[in-house]
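Q: What structure does this chain adopt?
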Amino acid sequence: MRHVTPVRAPPTTPGNPLVTLGAPTLHTGVLDALGGEIAAGALPAGSVLGLEPLAERFGVSRTVVREAVRVLESLGFVETRRRVGVTVQARERWNVLDPRVVRWRLGGAGRAEQWRSLTALRAGVEPVAAAAAARRARPEQARRLLELAEEMERLGAAGDLAAFGEADVAFHELVLRASGNEMLAALSGMVAEVLRGRTEHLLMPEHPEPAARALHARVARAVAARDSAAAESAMRAIVAEVQTAIEEATGDG
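A:
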């Protein structure tokens, strides 16, 4: 197995969150740094990490490092064994649907591949969820979808991309929850991370397409009208539009 000696972190600065904030942020900073490096392949499978070098690198206690490693282990990123240490695992072991893993992978060199696989998953899941939501959504859920569609139309027309993005996240999360299927609902965090990643990585137009906004309104109206076929069709069109836009933006079209 390859042994990796982590490099020392940059000098402490007033803006370094690993130093200036509390223990939860220390843990999150170490977790995100290591998770991102493993996802990007900077720490390849078989790499062995030492707790003491990691603590020195990040300027934190071994307790903080252990907590970060514990979370990485729960995600299948590493395995801890006596007399061996913390060993980075192959991608086949990763919990690829966990929102943190999705975020780390979208931040790495294999981003285009990740977009393709995630969008394919959405194409298979979200239209089914929309159809189920039309059959099972509670009245308050249907009303909220209509409200969110109206918000998205207003914010998109105004070019308020950040607020539009959060309304979009809320809309798609609600469709999955309103499906009444706990398996579909469990994917809401993953879908939310994909949608936020699209904005973060500048794959959203400055003014979201009017056609895409209209499709969200069609989904909401179909759910409210209990029209499962129309809800499924509109959601399928939404994901197809996303797939085309991402392929064009990443050069895969």
